[in-house]
Amino acid sequence: MQESLGQAIAEAIALLLSADPALWEIIGISFSVSGAAITIAVLPAMAVGFALAFYEFPGRRLLIALSNTLLSVPAVVVGLTCYLLLSRQGPLGDMRLLFTQSAMIIGQIALCFPLLVAMSHSAFQAVDRRAWETAITLGQSTLGALYLVVREARFALLAAVLAAFGRIIAEVGASMMLGGNILHYTRNIPTAIALETSKGDFAQGIALGMVLLVLAFSLNILLHLFQGKGALT
Amino acid sequence: MSAEIARCLIEFQGVSKSFEGRTILQSLNLCLREGQCHLLLGENGAGKSTLLRIMAGLLAPDQGMITQQATSRRWRKARDFLRGHVMYLHQTPYLFDGSVRQNLQYALPATLRGKAREQRLQQVLDWSELSNLALSPAKQLSGGEKQRVALARAFLRQAPVLLLDEPTANLDRTSRQRTIALLHSLKQRGVCLLIACHDAHGLDILADGNYQLSAGSLLAEQA
Questions:
Q1: Where are the domains of chain A?
Q2: d(Cα B120, Cα B126) in Å, to the nearest integer?
Q3: What residue spans of chain A are helical by DSSP H?
């Protein structure tokens, strides 16, 4: 077993270095789908996080509790909910989105939105309230004041984006249910790993797993660099 | 500028505020006059900061109106006007992440560019004696230096009214004197100052009069 595992790892590395088009196509789909999801979700989620941190309004506490609850909902349950909405019998069935990249993006938005809300809420809460008041009293417009507050929370907000991206690019449940794991179209890294492993083809699975591992490591390095530490301490 | 001829910049009428059933301010009337300085005296928890925050348009009162150049406005409409004309300085000034210079830039209008902007920045750095700290990280300054940056921002902002919350609290003697000198300079430039404090701490030298805030009511006293 050890010998076959070593062989599979060697094959995986060779596969990655050989610029295998099928492998890199899967990686490309993963990044484009998750990139689109995070791009769409980030601004509205952070706006909600900001409102929760800086404004008092009816239902605020309920919204905080809801976003925290949704954090622990498994990806497969999110996938199932979106599946029921997008399936032919579902309320959004006419849009014919099921088993498309758009459906995967919707599922990933649903997954990362609560995480972005919860983490940006914490990030904005950590900013001194005087920052907002000072910006206003300096004559900044609402947008200008918002920019200054976001700037104060930028490292924590960046951490939120990286954590959310890490979560959605590695999730398998929602992508499998909503995308259908169709080759050249909706097959992404986690669904491909699940498939190749079930077929006993470990090399490609390990190669894709390595990509996720390198990605996770790179995201953390990036975060540390942004925080001005320059090196891991 | 004498008290008799000083123009009333903004008049507050019937300002009331309660928190959780407790009355903090009760139907207060106050006039802010050009180039005048008043101390707002009161015990801790008397509502001084609340009043200043309302006057700066940062906190909505339960009731009240403002009058400016014979135009009366309800509070909802007054907020933007107040934010445009009144500047509020916290007891411990908040400085943004970045250098002193960057912090000063936030107080300049975006329309001011190029050489004029640089000249203005250099002028305020000289005025506040902060030239040697221009590139220092603002968050690492001492309390007195932070206060000077805050006053330098007020200088740049050119708001006709400046509200200060305990500006000399927790400062050593030298820093206190420097702060008072900068406030005096602002007053001479026609800025109306209202300074909340529970102890005059040498600020009475600037004052044309005092307001005593007690049990939600305001009592005016001549200096």
A1: 2-226
A2: 10
A3: 2-17, 21-54, 60-71, 75-86, 101-126, 129-137, 142-152, 154-169, 173-179, 189-199, 202-226
Ordered by where they begin, the domains of chain B are: 8-222 (3.40.50.300)
The torsion angle over the Cα atoms of residues A16, A17, A21 and A22, rounded to 10 degrees, is: -20
Q: How many CB pairs under 8 A join A and B?
A: 45
Beta bridge partners of B8: B33
Taking the Cβ of residue A131 and every Cβ of chain B, the question of whether any pair is shorter than 8 Å is answered with yes
What crossing angle do the helices spanning A75-86 and A101-126 adopt, rounded to 10°? 130
Q: What is the pTM of this model?
A: 0.85
What is the token pair recorded at B8? 């009333």
Q: Say yes or no: A58 contacts chain B, CB-CB below 8 A.
A: no
Computed on alpha carbons and rounded to an integer, the radius of gyration of chain A in Å comes to 20
Nearest chain A residue to B139 by CA distance is: A152
Helices (H), chain B: 48-55, 75-85, 100-105, 114-127, 143-157, 173-188
Q: How many CB atoms lie within 10 A of CB B70?
A: 6
Are the C-beta atoms of residues A89 and A159 closer than 8 Å to each other?
Answer: no
Among candidate residues A231, A223, A233, A228, the one with its CA nearest the CA of residue A164: A223
What residue in A sits closest to B102 (Cα-Cα)?
A: A148
Q: Based on C-alpha coordinates, what's the Rg of chain B?
A: 17
Query: In CATH, what is the architecture of A2-226?
Result: Orthogonal Bundle (1.10)
**B157 contact A CB<8A:** yes
**pLDDT digit string (tens) for chain B, length 223 residues:** 444 567 888 999 999 999 988 999 999 999 999 999 999 999 888 999 999 999 999 999 998 888 876 677 777 778 888 999 999 999 999 999 999 999 999 999 989 999 999 999 999 999 999 999 999 999 999 999 999 999 999 999 999 999 999 999 889 999 999 999 999 999 999 999 999 998 877 898 999 999 999 988 988 876 5
* B109 lies within 8 A of chain A by CB: yes
ipTM of model over 0.95: no
